[in-house]
Write a structure and sequence with these properties.
Elements: H1 3-11, H2 15-37, H3 40-57, H4 67-85, H5 87-94, H6 104-108
Amino acid sequence: MDPRQLVRDCLKGEPAAQKELYDHFAGPMLGVCYRYTKSMTDAEDILQDGFIKIFKNLDQYKFEGELGAWIRRIMVNTAINYLKRNTRYQIELSLPIPNCSPSPERILK
């Protein structure tokens, strides 16, 4: 798969190229999405939203850096925005982080 040609073909609206791009990156990007939500259903929603953004904005890819890195950045941003919009995740994001450092008394023992 030549990423440059694949992007050009996707920009021409060729369904085979779009399917190839999706098939190549969907698996790894689903893993990225899942790491943010810990819910496969939510991760699949984020994946679909992310690919919609990717195909809408593919003309903005400047062939600088790897295509996979550009796609990953879009997926991460989509996941973060999803977490901000979803009230269930808002509660989790607002919980204080427990102090994980050991107390001085435990270090000395």
